[in-house]
Amino acid sequence: MRARAALVVASLMLSLVAGTVAAQVPAAAPRGAPELTFGAYLAAVARANLTLAAQRANVSVADAQITIARVFPDPVLTAGVGSWEVSGVGAQNSATAGVSVPVEWPTKRPARIAAARAGRDVAAADLEDVARTLRGAATAAWIDAIFAQRTAERRRTTAESMERLAEANAQRVRDGALGEMVALQTRIEAARYRGEALTADGEVRATRAALDELMGARGATADTAVHGELRVEPRTFTLEALVAYAAEHRADLRARREGVRAARARVDLAQANRGIDVSANLGWQYSTPGQQGSAFEAPGFHSLGATLSVPLPLSRIYDGEVRAARASEEQSLLLRDAADLRATTEIREALARYDAARARLGTFDASLLADNDRVLEMARYAFEHGASRLLELLLAQRTWAETTLAYEAALADHARALAALETAAALWDLAF
Questions:
Q1: CA separation (Å) from 284 to 55, 263, 290, 304, 309?
Q2: pLDDT for the residue 33
Q3: How many CB atoms lie within 10 A of CB 381?
Q4: Residue 77 buriedness (CB in 10 A; 0-12 / 13-18 / 19+)
Q5: What is the H or E stretch that residue 132 is in?
Q6: At CA 158, angle to CA 395 and CA 178, rounded to 5?
Q7: pLDDT tens per residue across span 122-141
Q8: Between 219 and 42, where is the model more confident?
Q9: For 131, what's the count of Cα atoms within 13 Å in the CB-facing half-sphere?
Q10: Residues in a beta bridge with 94
Q11: Is the whole model's pTM more than 0.85, yes or no?
C-alpha cells in the first residue's frame, strides 16, 4: 500500500511539474487550427471596418461637392408665339425666340470652389484621424484577446493539475494513507480552479467577438487562435518631444487647422455671394404680313432685341450670411485651440499611465519570477518528503498562480498603456 501511495505521490509531482512548465511556456494553437497575426488583423480592420468605411464616404461626398461648385448657371432658351390674331381684323401674327444667359459675379465661382476644396481637406483629415483612433482601439482589443487567451491557458492548466491532485488524494483516502478532510479540501480547490477556467474561457469568446466587430465580421475568429506576444520592450519618452510630434502628425489637429481655413473660405464665399448676378437677354421676333386692304396692312419683318437684367440689391442691407460665416470662423479658431489643449492633456495622461505601467512591470524581474517557481518547487519537495502538509502545497500553488497571472496582467497593462500613448502622440511602431 505504501508503494502504491508513493507511486501516486510521484505521479502527482510529475503532473504538477508538467502544469508549471505548461503555464510558463505560451500554449501553442492546436495543430492545423488557423492563426490570426497582428498584421493580418490590422489589415482586416483597415479593409472591412464599417465605421471606417462610413467615414470614407464623407470624403467621396466632399469630392462631389467640388464638382458641384464648378457648375455654371444654365442659360435659358425661350421660344413661342408672340401674338396670334383671333379677332379677324387682319392684324399681324408674330413668333419669338430668345436666350437668357445668367452672368455670375466674378468672385462667386472661385470662392465656391475654394470652400468645397477646404471642406474636402477637412473630411480627409477626419478620415485619417478616425483611422488613428480605430488603430488604437483595435490594438487594445487585440491585447485583451491575447491576455484573455493566455489567462485561460494558465487557469485551464492549473485546474487540470488540481483535478489530478484531487483524484490522487481520493485514491490515497481509499488506500487509508490520507485523511478525508485533506481530500475534500483538494476537491474544493479543484472545483474553484475549474470555475475560474470556465470564466476565463468565456472571456476569450467575448474578446474574440470584439475583434470580429472591429473587422466587420461575425464569428470570424471563433475557431482561430490569436497569435501574438504581450512582451514589449519598455521605452522612455519625454513629454515635450511627444507633444511636438503630435502637433505635426495628429490628424485631428490638422483637421481643426483645415477647419479654420474652411471657415475663412466660407467667409469669402458669403462676401462673394453679396455680388449682383445679371442676365444678358437676346431675342428674335418675326411678324407676319398684315392683311391687305385692312388697317393692319404691312409687310412681314424680322427683328432682334437685346436687354440686360440687373436686380435691385435691396436685400443686401441684410448681412446675416456674412455674420454667420464670421461667427463660424471664430468658432473654428476656438475648436482648434481646444483640440491642441485636448491633445496635450491626452498625451500627459497617457504618459503618466505608461510610466506607472512600466514601473509595475519592472517589479516582476527575473529573480522574482525565479523565486516564485522556487517556492512552489520547495513546497512540492517538502510535501513529497512528508515535511509539510497538503494545505501548504495548495497555498504555494495558489501564490504561484496568482503571481504568474499578475505578471501576465502587468505585461498586458504595459502593452495597453504603450499603445494608448503612441495613439495619443500619433507615433506608431508597435508589433505583437
A1: 53, 46, 19, 5, 17
A2: 55
A3: 13
A4: exposed
A5: helix 108-175
A6: 55
A7: 999 999 999 999 999 999 99
A8: 42
A9: 17
A10: 83, 287
A11: no
